[in-house]
Design goal:
Layout lengths: L9 H10 L5 H14 L5 H11 L3 H8 L12 H12 L1
Helix pairs in contact: 3-5
């Protein structure tokens, strides 16, 4: 995805997938499609960016996923923006 080495630890990817389970069905559906498409292509950089996004509340995350808001502050870095764009297109 970003040209960095592949995130090869299946346990780390499984934990990330579990953490992506959200309280809002809309977020769950987006993340389920995202992982179905990209899980095995994620790099360590991608996992870090995704982890930062998952630290948001459900509503803040949904606003980003649905393009109601754009990332700000620590989330405005290129890696997080790139992963967010992938999430928005699934």
């Amino acid at each position: 995805m970003d040209g960095s080495p592949h995130q090869s630890d299946p346990l780390r990817r499984a934990r990330l997938r579990w953490r992506a389970r959200r309280g809002l069905l809309e977020n769950d559906l987006i993340f389920e499609r995202f992982f179905s498409r990209y899980e095995h292509d994620l790099s360590d950089v991608d996992v870090g960016a995704l982890t930062r996004l998952l630290e948001l509340s459900d509503n803040d995350l949904m606003d980003l996923l649905l393009s109601r808001k754009e990332p700000e502050g620590d989330l405005a870095d290129p890696d997080t923006k790139r992963v967010l764009e992938l999430l928005r297109t699934v």
